[in-house]
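=== RUN LOG ===
request id: a7f3
mode: sequence -> structure
chains: 1
length: 322
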Amino acid sequence: MPTAQNNRIDLLSEPNQLVRRRFINFIRIECGLLPSSIEAYSRDLETLLIDLQNRGINDAHNTLPEHLIAHIRSLTKERGYAGTTVSRHIATIKVFYRWLYANEKIEDNPADHLDQPAKWKKLPGVLSPNQIKKLLNAPQPPEKPNGQPPLYLRDRAILELMYASGLRASEVGNITLSDLKERIGIIRVLGKGDKHRIVPMGTPAIKALDEYLSECRPMLINAERAAEKRDQGRLFLSRTGRPIERVRVWQIVNRCAKQSGLERVHPHMLRHSFATHLLAGGADLRIVQDLLGHADITTTQIYTHVDRSKLSDTIKNLHPRG
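=== RESULT ===
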């Protein structure tokens, strides 16, 4: 068994940022993870360490299995993460503590017995069509014009596009102006694994994008900012004219949901609702798989278990003895 170093490791202290950087280098070089996976692992690790700090655990030696279990539970109960996302967090935790143990930073590995299920059975949260309508109508102009960029047009375009095309929050910020093909009603999306997919846009989304592009985006790029090229050619911009970040998309969805009287709504629910509503309307499972960018159709099949409203009608209309 490795003998842990005498010095304690405060994983959240400034000097030990080096420990975390070495771990990221480890998963990049030794594990050969893709840049998108490395970014996800880095975010997961940050979430874990902040949560442990909030629980009074700053020292790696003091981490117990129950601390990690409590953290994993918080991902679903407090943050509303999907099962696949929680599964990735668990993978991050296991790799990180295995690395600490192998490098003699801890004496025992508290993540040894964490459950890593092959498939999570939790069904995704889905909004009803009426709830979606309320959410999409939430962005409204201010009561008194203030001369500022009409950011409600940007927020409305983001919500419409996420629901119309099944986009992830991380994908929204990566869309460039060249990815948008309004004349033929499609958009090119850079998804997981740095893979592109082509997704159609509905008429409401195209209209919302037109209003944003004509009335809001130009105000976000004034002459001074245009010279600096802050926008990097991205479609959706922040108030400062820079590409919008993933966390801001979360904030927009959360704020608009509260304005609509909805609770516990996160960006991925728009994607879940997109897939569920398509399948409920009779869309082919393979087509929905392509639209979502799923490599494995079993990932898409979970949506077939969400909407059961048409089962009895289907049997009655199609079964020989119906």
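=== NOTES ===
The two ends are 66 Å apart (CA to CA).
DSSP finds 15 helices and three strands in the chain.
=== END ===
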